[in-house]
Amino acid sequence: MTENPDRTISNPNILIRGQKFWLIDHGAALGFQYSLEHLTEDSPGRPWACAREHIFYKVQHLLAQVYAEFAPFCSYDEFLSLSWEIPREFIRPETQPREYNLATRRRELFAAWLWKRLKSFKPDIN
Questions:
Q1: Buried residues in 48-87 as b, exposed as e (16+ CB within 10 A)
Q2: Distance between CA 10 and CA 112 in Å, rounded?
Q3: Could you tell me which residues come within 8 angstroms of residue 17 by beta carbon, excluding any fewer than 6 positions away?
Q4: Tens of pLDDT, residues 16-53
Q5: Under 8 Å CB-to-CB from 104, ≥6 apart: which residues?
Q6: What is the C-alpha to C-alpha distance for residues 102 and 52, in angstroms, rounded to an integer?
Q7: How confident is the model over 113-125, as pLDDT tens digits?
Q8: Distance CA 81, CA 76 (A)
Q9: pLDDT tier, 73 (very low <50, low <70, confident <90, very high otherwise)
Q10: What does the alpha-carbon distance between residue 69 and residue 45 come to, in Å, rounded to a whole number?
Q11: Which of these, 47, 57, 101, 112, is most buried using a 10 Å CB contact count?
Q12: CB-count burial class (<10 Å; 0-12, 13-18, 19+) for 11
């Protein structure tokens, strides 16, 4: 669902402790935030250019099961609610106060992008 180009075979950003795996370094997972000027209504549904290099590319078929199990519980409102858990520093608030808070708008963008990305995912459940 997310697009973290840093999670490759040569640089997986996965810590292993005991029998547990911890995915780390999520800064690039929501790459759209770094080029908002290129964001369109169709962006969340477009195929990801770096997908073949991703460490989990060969097991992407397993996403169909995850999608089938969790998608019915994910709504735009849920994503918006979760977006308020993102620290304000990560949202990169504007430097000058405005009537419509840029940090609030960015939270709405995060929620909308994730929800549209989920809705555009068409798993091959065959």
A1: eeeeeebbeeeeeeeeeeebeeeeeebeeeebbeebeeee
A2: 32
A3: none
A4: 999 999 988 877 777 777 777 777 778 777 766 677 88
A5: none
A6: 34
A7: 888 888 877 655 4
A8: 9
A9: confident
A10: 20
A11: 112
A12: exposed
